[in-house]
Amino acid sequence: MKYKISEIADFLNREFKGEDGVIIGCNTLSDAREDEISFLANPKYVKYLATSRAGVVILEPKYAKEVDKCIISPNPYLDFARVVGLFAKAQGEFTGISDLSFIHPDAHLDKGVVVYPYVFIGPRAQIKKGTKLFPGVYIGEDCFIGEDCVLYPNVVVMGQCIIGNRVILHPGVVIGADGFGFAATQGGREKFPQIGNVVIEDEVEIGANTTIDRAALGETRVGKGTKIDNQVQVGHNVKIGSNCVIVAQVGIAGSTRIGNNVILAGQVGIAGHVNVADGCMIGAKSGINKDVKKTGIYSGAPIMEHNKFLRTCAVLPKLPDMHRELKRLRQEIDKLKEQFKDIQDK
Amino acid sequence: MKYKISEIADFLNREFKGEDGVIIGCNTLSDAREDEISFLANPKYVKYLATSRAGVVILEPKYAKEVDKCIISPNPYLDFARVVGLFAKAQGEFTGISDLSFIHPDAHLDKGVVVYPYVFIGPRAQIKKGTKLFPGVYIGEDCFIGEDCVLYPNVVVMGQCIIGNRVILHPGVVIGADGFGFAATQGGREKFPQIGNVVIEDEVEIGANTTIDRAALGETRVGKGTKIDNQVQVGHNVKIGSNCVIVAQVGIAGSTRIGNNVILAGQVGIAGHVNVADGCMIGAKSGINKDVKKTGIYSGAPIMEHNKFLRTCAVLPKLPDMHRELKRLRQEIDKLKEQFKDIQDK
Amino acid sequence: MKYKISEIADFLNREFKGEDGVIIGCNTLSDAREDEISFLANPKYVKYLATSRAGVVILEPKYAKEVDKCIISPNPYLDFARVVGLFAKAQGEFTGISDLSFIHPDAHLDKGVVVYPYVFIGPRAQIKKGTKLFPGVYIGEDCFIGEDCVLYPNVVVMGQCIIGNRVILHPGVVIGADGFGFAATQGGREKFPQIGNVVIEDEVEIGANTTIDRAALGETRVGKGTKIDNQVQVGHNVKIGSNCVIVAQVGIAGSTRIGNNVILAGQVGIAGHVNVADGCMIGAKSGINKDVKKTGIYSGAPIMEHNKFLRTCAVLPKLPDMHRELKRLRQEIDKLKEQFKDIQDK
């Protein structure tokens, strides 16, 4: 693939400054060659403008004078992402429906669905147009998979689950395995059968080996446009709002509700049956064990306001010194009190 | 499926109060319709009794007067779980042995084993009656899989491992991958071949994408009735007792021994070569780096008694204030000492 | 398999003391039988020498007098690992190329590659000699897989990724899924297409269900001889040096650089865009949020020097007492100051 710079500027509907040329790829400022396009989004990389060999740079108006050839944009990162999309090639080249797949006669596939070898599609499942199922995908009975989805290799969607449109499930994702529910008996524990399902709304993307459990009763739900990274665990009956960002290795226990536009950084853990308010940002490795009612930035395990967390972390390594100082103060005060008593007694 | 309330009461062997009726499903107090059964286990939901539309509610004797129709039970949650079991339908409808599967001629399958397409069963593996192997399951050579097990899609059981009866392995579980063992050399590290196996006892349930490594020598073992959630990591030569509950994303390093009836909450980490006493409960995100000899409730990383942990967490955000106060006290005491010295010198 | 003790000593090129005999297996000092070989590496197990039934023990010269039969070695653990290798049998007995696999006509496989059933190999992929692909493996288009690799069941290598020689990928490993990159828009988030790849160098071993994301641009790289445990997450554009050890459930966010010979213990989390110096050792559950410039041992979240961390942890449970003591000191000092003022006023 190759494009003229002017064609790229037209595609973005942005102004282009400099001489036209041919672009055959995308790269960072420091690695780009003369026939590659780059971008400047983070001010700390301004210094690379002078030495970058990039054929053209997408940047904000204020940096336009620093380079010979640029495409001027109010949002260089977003525009660059779109240009990368021009050059990107989707994974996988298989087309049609492999006769090495197993499609139950009662399943219904729209025309144009791609089914690789070794895919299993159970009875009464529906797969809508434009969706691709890579090798090793399992679609259980009565599932609904919307339009233009991509289910990468070895994705599992257990029976009765519902996947919206334009959803991306990366390799090894498991949707709709049983939630973790047991009733105590005298001898041990008895399984609480998990008869609910999972609903994934439109434009959700879910990272490799992430697991989202089916509800005990009712549904587990991930809201529209939410992006989930790799190895995230979502327990049964959890509700996640729309446009959230959930980074790798987060765990969310059962029946918890996450609002809209919430950002959970890596390795956060959230207890069951709590609510997290819209728009909250939770720092990496934090632990949440009760409702977060007020939108804000929080960190720590258990969480506190992020600024307080930073100050606490700054003091924490001084704790042994504080402990010693406290003992010294105690001794000195006890001595002072004694001396003082002596004076008073005189 | 549908049942009369009286039939359900008979099934549970419990007393039924009120007029009989037909029940076609199970739900929570707040979501149940007139033809659904519900339950009250948590006292904080008593308020929903008045407004619930549920056709009948399973509850403790003391709440019986609050509703028109109820089934009276000393353990409403357990009894409700059993009723849900009446209505639950097992995942998957495939029967027989698919000719799209690969079964080594030296493998031995009992009659009535279900083998979906794309299952691989290695030489000398034994699979006992009533067990179901979903698509993408791999059973290595010399494995033994007991009766009435369910191995969901893409479960991997590496060679020589032993799975008991009525074991449930959720999608993506890996049993018997090599433990993480290397011997240092001058140039780097050399693999310590992992020649042990994994033994999973009866009635164990293991969540999606959990991994349980084979022993270096000897065995890794999970005891009878233990329930393990999703994305848990169990290292080589670990021994887990019976009736434990291990919540999602816990990691247990090599050669550690977990007693019976231990509960590990989410994201707990346990170092290698330590022992955790029977009946311990370990709070979420805790870290254990030495033996826990006394049964109790512990939290923190490293752990302390849970009550002490709660008090410590309550004080932690005050640490910056404490640090400042300590400096002020130091100044004031130094000043007092000086003033005192002046007096004594007079 | 069986060997004479003298044959084993010759294989190791070590001195053998005692009477020759036949060895048929390897075991720990406490579990070994008369026909098994064992080893002593950890001094705390010296006490088992007297009672061990092992047919021969590999140990350091200073312990040679404690037993009748021993192989004397400066590095008993490494030598024992090598002996275990004599007795170890590789997983899987399949040979040849299964006609239940899918190999694209434009893929190139060297002679001697083993392809189990249900393997998918995309166009233009190259697989070099001696490599084994277990069931459910997916190799995307344009991938390169070097010599003598083992890809265990359900391993996924997405298109364009490069795997070196003698690499071991345990079940469920995902190499080259999309990195987690999105550009904010007014309405939500737009995907930044991930057009880079992953490069895994020679002698790397990667544990079950670990995920290593493809780069946004350029490459994600794991250096030669690095060993990665189960359920580790490596973000896009991360560079990991050679001979590192990365224990289970570690998460490394995008664009971070890990030096050579770094050890990350279990459940460590590292933020994006930071550097960790060669030779660092990072304690379990630690969190790193900025550059670690100096080689050393660190722990905590955020990290501090390990010794300081240990002292801090020792004091932490005393924090509630410190808080109370601080209040008492404040009262006593205020009282002293008042009394002092009274005296001065006299």
CATH topology of the largest domain in chain A: UDP N-Acetylglucosamine Acyltransferase, domain 1
Main sheet: strand order of chain A: 10-13-16-19-24-27-30-33-36-38-39
Superfamily at the CATH H level of the largest domain in chain A?
A: Hexapeptide repeat proteins
- Based on DSSP secondary structure assignment, what is the total number of beta strands of chain A? 39
For the report, how would you describe the main beta sheet of chain A?
11 strands, mixed
User: Distance between termini of chain A?
Assistant: 99 Å
Oligomer: homotrimer
What Rg of chain A is obtained from the alpha carbons, in whole angstroms?
Answer: 28 Å
List unreliable stretches of 5+ residues of chain A. none
CATH class of the largest domain in chain A: Mainly Beta
Coarse structural class of chain A: alpha/beta
- Any idea what the shape of chain A is? flat
- Give the name of the CATH architecture of the largest domain in chain A: 3 Solenoid
Strand percentage of chain A: 25-35%
Count structural domains of chain A: 2
Average of per-residue pLDDT values of chain A: 96
Walk me through the structure:
The structure is a homotrimer of 346-residue chains. Chain A has 346 residues and is α/β, with parallel strands linked by helices. Chain A folds into 2 domains: 3-87, MurE/MurF, N-terminal domain (Udp-n-acetylmuramoylalanyl-d-glutamate--2,6- Diaminopimelate Ligase, Chain: A, domain 1), CATH 3.40.1390.10; 102-307, UDP N-Acetylglucosamine Acyltransferase, domain 1 (3 Solenoid). In chain A, the strands form 6 sheets. Chain A has an 11-stranded mixed β-sheet, covered by helices on one side. In chain A, strands 8-11-14-17-20-25-28-31-34-37 form a 10-stranded parallel β-sheet, with no helix packed on it. The first copy, chain A, has a 9-stranded parallel β-sheet with strand order 9-12-15-18-23-26-29-32-35, with no helix packed on it. Chains A and B meet through strand 21, strand 22, helix 3 and helix 4 of A and helix 2 and helix 4 of B.
